[in-house]
Amino acid sequence: MHFDLADFRLVSNIAEESNLTRGAARSFLSVPAASQRIKNLEFTLGIKVFQRSSQGVALTEAGRAYLDHGRRILAQIELLTSELQAFGSGLKGQLKIQANTTAITEFMPPVLGAFLRDHPEVQIDMREKLSDEAVRAVRDGAADIAIISGTVPTDGTEVRRFARSRLVAVAPLDHPVANRNKARFQDLLQHEFVALLDGSATQEFLRQHALALHENLSVRVQAAGFDAVFRLVEAGIGIGVMPEIVVQRMNSRATVHVCELDEPWATREYQLCAKAFESLPSFAQDLVRRIIAAYDSESP
C-alpha cells in the first residue's frame, strides 16, 4: 500500500470539521479535488474512509483506524521537522492548540507575542473548545496541546498546572446584586445576563451548570468577548460572569460591582495537557516552558 502525507492531512481536516467543504479549504484544495483524493484513497485501500449523509461526513471504523495511525505519523513528522531546524533554515512547524475562552483571551496573548517573535517559522492553529473536548482532541491526536480548567478526565495524557483563576459575577452599580459581596449561582439565575456568544467555552460551561440546577440562563444580550460583556454590564444592561483576571484588568475605576461566586467550581485550576510533553517538538516544549514561567509564580 502507498500512503501519502497529504491524504493523512486531508482526512484529518475533514474529520475535524465533519464537513468535506471546510476540510478541503483547510487543506487548500477545491471540493472536487478533495473528493477525488478521498475516492482514490478508498479505492487504493479497498475500504470506505467516510460515511456520507445529509448531516455531513463521519469516519467509518476503518477510517478511524487510518486516521489514528496517520496522526501519529504526522506528529512524528512534526517532531522530525523540529529537530532538523537546528541543522537548517526555512523549515516550518505547526502547533495545534485547543483551549477554553479564558486561556485564549487572557493567558495566551502575552506569551504568544514573544514566542512567535522568537519562532517566526512556527504557525499556531488555536481553537476555542470546552476542556473535555480539548483533552479528547489531544488524546485523539487532533491537538498537540490543550489548555484546560476544572475537573475533567485526563486519562492517557500528561498535565502540568500553571495558574489559578476565579469566576466572579459583575453587576451594574445600581443592580440588586450590587448589595451582595457573595452569591450562589442559583440566586443569580433569577436575573438577566449579559453573556458570551453561544458555542463559546465559558458560555457552554455556565449553561451546563444552569441545567444541572434545572434552571435556564436568561440572556438579555450576547457579545463576542469578555471586554464587550464588561462594557455592557457597565452600561446597566444585566449581570455577567467572567474570570477575575479580566475584571482586574478592566475595573480600575470601579465602574461595576464585583460579587464572589459562592460555588466550588468558581475557582478553576488551569493546566496544560499533552500526550507526552517530552515527545512534543522543541518549539512546542519552549511554549510550554514560557506559559508556566509567566503564570505559575502569580498563582495564589
Q: Can you describe what's shown?
A:
This protein is of the alpha/beta class and 300 residues long. Among the domains are: 1-87, Arc Repressor Mutant, subunit A (Orthogonal Bundle), CATH 1.10.10.10; 164-265, Periplasmic binding protein-like II (D-Maltodextrin-Binding Protein, domain 2, 3-Layer(aba) Sandwich), CATH 3.40.190.10. It has helices at 5-17, 20-26, 31-45, 61-84, 101-118, 131-140, 185-188, 201-212, 226-234, 244-250, 282-295, and strands spanning 50-53, 56-59, 93-99, 122-128, 145-149, 158-171, 182-183, 193-196, 219-223, 240-243, 257-261, 267-274. The strands form three sheets. Strands 3, 4, 5, 6, 7, 10, 11 and 12 form an eight-stranded mixed sheet that branches. A two-stranded antiparallel sheet has the order 1-2. Strands 8-9 form a two-stranded parallel sheet. Helix 8 (201-212) links the parallel strand 8 (193-196) and strand 9. Helix 1 crosses helix 2 (20-26), helix 1 (5-17) crosses helix 4 (61-84) and helix 5 (101-118) packs across helix 11 (282-295). The radius of gyration is 22 Å and the shape is globular. The model has no long low-confidence stretch (mean pLDDT 89).
